[in-house]
What does this fold into?
Amino acid sequence: MYSEIKKQMPSILEAAGEIVCSASHITDCITAKAGDANFVTEYDVNVQNFLKEKLTALCPGALFFAEEQENDPLTDAPTFLIDPIDGTTNFIRGLGQSCISVGFYVNKKPVLGYIYQPYARELFYAYAGEGAYLAKNGKTTRLSRADVPLSGSLSAFGTDPYRKSTTGAETMRVAGELLARSLDIRRTGSAALDLINVAAGRCDLLYENLLSPWDFGAGRLIVEEAGGVVMRPDGKPLPMDRPSPILAGAPSACAEFLSEIGYRLND
Ligand code: LIP
It folds into this structure.
């Protein structure tokens, strides 16, 4: 099923990636959004509009749940969850660590997931029940991440920066606990990049106090199809219809997180 989407997505994402990589005068087109340090650029909107145009032609009638628009609640209808530039602040600063994330959901369940890292020209994708893959330099590799304990993990965390004035202390508590128990910790500034790093075994765990469905819509499927687990950091299932705290990674590392570190925010 969805063979035409599967066939066309790589070229659509490559073209979207060109919008990101060819951007110029980015600092001239920034708008502040609600919260601390939350920005959107003209390029986020351009990529989102480009993707909506191409995906509407590819899948007429599909709905969109995307970061840079007002969204109706997620329904059971076929829906694309889009973060046009995940890691917007990285994009603004030229850090080269941003991704384009597109998940395709039906009945609020992940069917297809795509994350394109345009600077590295790496396309990560997964089809539900059919595995996760990395396509790069004309070669496609199936992803199968090892199970490792926290002591053998490189642990990534996000800083929930748009709410740092209220959740920053908990973020740093968890980061300190992860540093004490893991090989080391990492913070990339892009949740989608963190999730593909977990799927590829480059990292082994991701924790963040709060992400939106467009941040993790594609990445959760890619991690799960690569042999990882994804949940809330209290062990409950990750909801797809609202922002949520997230824990993703190797099963053993995540189990230790639940028993040794835990989650203390009320949401
Ligand atoms: C960002 C995430 C990042 C998280 C930020 C924000 P954006 O996405 O990728 O990991 O810490 O809160 O959600 O806003 O750059 O698309």
